[in-house]
Design brief:
The protein is mainly β. It has a single domain (about 5-100), classed as Translation factors (Elongation Factor Tu (Ef-tu), domain 3), CATH 2.40.30.10. The protein is built from 1 helix and 6 strands. The chain has a 6-stranded antiparallel barrel with strand order 1-4-3-2-5-6. A hairpin with a 6-residue loop joins strand 2 and strand 3. The two termini are about 15 Å apart.
Length: about 100
């Protein structure tokens, strides 16, 4: 599996609780992308990291983050302008992909 990373703007809901065992500038979860051209929904397991390494705080808006996924089909769905939801056991935020990071 190849790691693919994206820059995004993320808004965390005020109900988003800290993740134990991870640095506070990092979260793991599922990126959910509702497809606009069909009834399909895409899900990708992801790691979200604040680009400034400062803690991700519930309730903050438009935070610059890096979204990293390993699913091979991710580049087909995660493109600039795509809106997504961030889920753990519940919806904890939403965002928009700004660009793919090429290493």
């Amino acid at each position: 599996m190849k790691l693919t990373s994206y820059r995004a703007l993320l808004t965390l809901d005020s109900s988003a609780s800290p993740v134990s065992g991870m640095p506070t500038a990092t979260r793991s979860g599922v990126i959910r992308i509702p497809e606009t051209d069909s009834e399909a929904v895409c899900h990708f397991h992801a790691t979200i990291t604040a680009t400034d390494d400062e803690p991700l705080t519930p309730g903050e808006r438009l935070r610059d983050v890096t979204v990293s996924v390993t699913e091979e089909s991710a580049p087909d769905h995660l493109t600039a302008g795509v809106k997504f939801e961030l889920w753990t056991s519940k919806l904890i935020g939403h965002g928009i992909i700004s660009r793919r990071i090429v290493w």
